[in-house]
Amino acid sequence: MSAFRDVLSRSKRIIAVAGAGLSAASGIPTFRGARGMWRKYDAISLATPAAFKENPSRVWQFYHYRRTEALQAQPNAAHHALAMRALDAAAHNLGSTAPTDGPGSVLLEMHGRLFDVVCTAYNCRHRELNFSNPICPALAGTEDLMEAGVVEPDVPLSDPPMCSKCGALAQPGVVWFTEVPHYMDQIYLDKIEELVDAADLCIVVGTSYTVHPAASFASMVQVGGGKVAVFNIDHSDGDDRADFLLLSPCEETLPKALGITMS
């Protein structure tokens, strides 16, 4: 911890690669490991275009459940520590700054957002931020079915979430497995490459190093002469390449490591 904080104090360009584990302490399941099941399904298998095409009702029930949990959650100490560190960096003209944007901190959601809704129509693809819960009447109450022990409810979506612009079927605005992340489709490509190339410290928190290209960012920083610090609750594939490895709940270690006192 002491050695990391010494490096942190000397770092000028810091990037943080955050995964689902960052929000675990807020009560949001990571859907890997022991909590990887939703009803009787491997949750990761539902996060694919093929699953949505086969059964949009089932997939929308899953994402309605996730949206409901997220709306009830509150940021934990790790979220606050990262945010406060970013604000401090911006105030001192340091930190995770995209050169094209000027001084400050930049949040790049390369795997989409849970509360974005995207039209499935090829000639529309309208995207909007939608915090409605439920997002359509047919989903109301389906989040409680798992708690009631209903394994496979029959909930046909006669009125599924629809695009507000053209009326076609809408889908969750996230990047699914087998899809190209925003990093690769030019939305964030230039910004992320600039950040990674310039970084002298990469903080990896709450991720298992299994999803690319994000999993490669840490090694790219090291190739450029920077350091890598990993904050995870369990061992992951990238541990042997980390300069600093802190295995403990990130809501405990990250505030201490970043020098943030939580009230």
Automatic annotation (TrEMBL):
Gene Ontology MF terms in the entry: histone deacetylase activity, NAD-dependent; metal ion binding; NAD+ binding
UniProt domain Deacetylase sirtuin-type: residue ranges: 1-263
Record's keyword annotation contains NADP: no
Gene Ontology CC entries for this record: mitochondrion; nucleus
Binding, Zn(2+): C119, C124, C163, C166
Positions annotated as active site in the UniProt record: H111
Alphabetized Pfam families for the sequence: SIR2 (PF02146)
Entry keywords, A to Z: Metal-binding, Mitochondrion, NAD, Transferase, Zinc
InterPro entries, per the entry: DHS-like_NAD/FAD-binding_dom (IPR029035), NAD-dep_sirtuin_deacylases (IPR050134), Sirtuin (IPR003000), Sirtuin_cat_small_dom_sf (IPR026591), Ssirtuin_cat_dom (IPR026590)
Subcellular location: Mitochondrion
Family according to the record: Belongs to the sirtuin family. Class I subfamily.
Protein name: DHS-like NAD/FAD-binding domain-containing protein
Source taxonomy: Eukaryota, Fungi, Dikarya, Basidiomycota, Agaricomycotina
